[in-house]
Amino acid sequence: MVIMAETFQQIINGDKPVLVDFFATWCGPCKTMSPIVDAIGKEMMGKVRVLKVDVDKNQAVASAYQVQAVPTFLIFKNGKVVWKKAGGTDKITLRQQLLSFI
User: Which domain holds residue 50?
Assistant: First the structure.
């Protein structure tokens, strides 16, 4: 039996909001945001999806969405970017933004 992994496009085209965290392993603020993003993913499981995209390993995806700084957060709904924030943010803001698209 072959299990096909979902592609980035398949995930962001879903009807659930998708928070995408564009990060880099060398980025200090990204390391600070990581546990916050993980916590939101756990708290909102089933309602939203959370993806982490390493910009150094996925340059084409980062470029396609004009990610010029890390961390950058995007929320997708039905394949469209509905919110974008470059730089760090707080858990409350991320959660409120996601809730507004459920």
Answer: 14-99
